Amino acid sequence: MFILNANTQIISGVKTKPVINAMRILARDIEKKFNKTDEKGGIITLFEDSSVKSERYRLVTDGDMKIYASDDLGFVYGLLYISEKFLGIKPFWFWMDQKIEKTDRVDIKPFTYEPPEFAVRFRGWFFNDEVLLLKWKINGDADEPWRMAFEALLRCGGNITIPGTDKTSVKYRQMASDMGLWITHHHAEPLGAEMFARAYPDTPASFTEYPELFYKLWEDAVKAQKDYKVVWNLCFRGQGDNPFWGNDTSGRFNTPEARGELISRLISEQREIVKRLSGNENPVFCTNLYGEIMELYDEGFIKLDPDIIKIYADNGFGKMVTRRRDAHSKRVKAMPVKDGGSQGIYYHVSFYDLQAANHITMLPNSVDFVNNELSEVLSNDGNDLWIVNCSNVRPHVYYLDAIRKKWLGQNISDKTHSKEFADEYFGGSADAAEALEMRPKYMIPYGENEDEHAGEQFYTENSRLIAHQIIADRTKACPHLNWFTGEIPLAEQIKKFSDTCEAGLDGLKEYMEICESVPADAVFESTVLMQARIHYYCARAASELYGIFVALEEKNYKKAFMTAGECAELFDTAQMYMRGGEYGVWDGFYYNDCFADIKHSAYMMRKLMGYIRELGDNARHDKWYRDAVYAPEDRNVFLLLVLDNHMTDWELYLAMKKAEGVEQNENTVS
């Protein structure tokens, strides 16, 4: 028997940073798992063996335990396998607050183990829209969240990352590399270079006018990353997540032919820059067929060298079609093509589209749906590179774990994955498993396609846009809603939006109550139940907007004012539950929710209240106050104009509720 206990030692002649880091992780896990003892523990020894394939390992116990590997990631995976297999520490142990039960020792019989082949060559996460990670610290350390995120990726068998967006990716690529991960880049950042608009803020971002400046940025980027393992992203887009021709003033790129020709040429030239400056004889390349690039490629206007991995992207909701941008939604099929050469995917479990996506809640589509899409990707040879938009990790662990199984070559389903996930992270609760399995059935559909189910942004973002339009000019339609409603009058836009939310309310309430009936568990309450509450209360607030508009049009200003206040309270309630999910190490995790931004949705409802009050109250702001506070016989006596300080809109709302005998919501934020 091999004895694994608190005194087990790890010995290695391999002294690279990734291996040393993985040894430290296992040593930490051993300390977490075992009680202190005087009993001698076995020795884990690492041996280099060139016969073992890259990123593979062979684990042998015959008195001692030996790990044989030929490269850093082979040793890393071997050490983390010991942690999971024999210590019971799961891939998302940190992100799901796994309780590690102490014991004295684990006895391991002699065995030899070699892991199965991965179904995907490059497997990784893109920390995109990572606004929660930007402000959250663990015990005062702003870097610790990233260490834990990269560790989770390695535990999932990942080997590549885009370590953040824009400046953040530069900040954390060294840490990622030191832990053994390959680096690649945002689909709008050629070679991971600095954005032109930042490097040259006073110069138009026009390749036609300033080609030499673009080339310099690309060359500098290659020089800065030549010591990393890199899959070089070749591309040419605009100064954000948009087409380059929006920045170009030359007028030369008004046709798809011209656009495709320039993109193809620059990709080829970037490829040569890498070959010339990276110091790598066999560099690895990829290009993202994303949005407008996929459309140009599909039409035959972009030509690529055969050694470039073509990365196809889903639409942000898990469907392998091109994304919707504003009201433009061609839904061009973005599935890899059988025998199409080197291919991969960029896939979202989190998305930010300022329309209907999910950022602080899970993907609103089913695991069955995800399995079907990813199985088709694999059957079409799309197995060279998978980059998954993991956002801020914790809200999306359930789907990240599902995709981990896919790149390990397993099939997944709502039924099986929900049970396995509940077994690992919710103590085997059958109620928790059922809640996870049923969740997709309750998500509100906002369109007719199978993927068109609402994330929380559908309620929060569009409610803010409607409030703005009412305040700015309610005689005009809201152009930002055209993607959902088409070009129709504002009243019809708001009605369609509110009706869509209203139609799903009963289901969301039923689902929330299902989650509330799950036996008390702090992790379940702060993840699955919390997200159910966010959906319900935000959708309920959004469903009231048409009532506000109708009351305004009828000049029933008090009713409009009160309904807007109720909407604010509902958003407050969602915000309260979200922040209630912060405890212990998670203190402050949701502080920087600035995308869904539930608190700003509540703020916009309060701003709308102020606008309505100006229309309905008198100029001195004492009429509604008198109606709410004064006895009927005192309201028209003006010897003293007012008896109190002028009320804010919110104070007045609460006074009016009290006057109407409405019990104040205990969750109200003053």
Describe the structure.
- There is one protein chain.
- The chain is an alpha/beta fold and 670 residues long.
- It folds into four domains: 2-113, Chitobiase/beta-hexosaminidase domain 2-like (Chitobiase, domain 2), CATH 3.30.379; 122-412, TIM Barrel; 413-442, no CATH class; 457-612.
- Helix content is 44%, strand content 10%.
- Strands 10-9-8-15-14-13-12-11 form an eight-stranded parallel β-sheet. Strands 2-3-5-4-7 form a five-stranded mixed β-sheet, with helices on one face.
- Helix 7 (211-225) packs across helix 8 (256-277).
- The radius of gyration is 28 Å and the shape is globular.
- The model is unreliable at 666-670 (pLDDT under 50).
Low-confidence parts, pLDDT < 50 over ≥5 residues? Answer: 666-670
- Biggest sheet features: 8 strands, parallel
- CATH third-tier fold name of the largest domain: TIM Barrel
User: How many structural domains can be distinguished in the coordinates?
Assistant: 4
Mean pLDDT: 95
Strand order of the largest sheet: 10-9-8-15-14-13-12-11
CATH H-level superfamily title of the largest domain = Glycosyl hydrolase family 115
CATH class category label of the largest domain: Alpha Beta
Query: CATH architecture of the largest domain, please?
Result: Alpha-Beta Barrel
Q: How large a portion of the residues is in β-strands, by DSSP E?
A: 5-15%
Q: Count of helices?
A: 22
> What is the terminal-to-terminal distance?
64 Å
The strand count comes to 15
- Which structural class do you get from the secondary structure elements? alpha/beta
Proportion of helical residues: 40-55%
General shape: globular
Query: What value does the Rg take, in angstroms?
Result: 28 Å
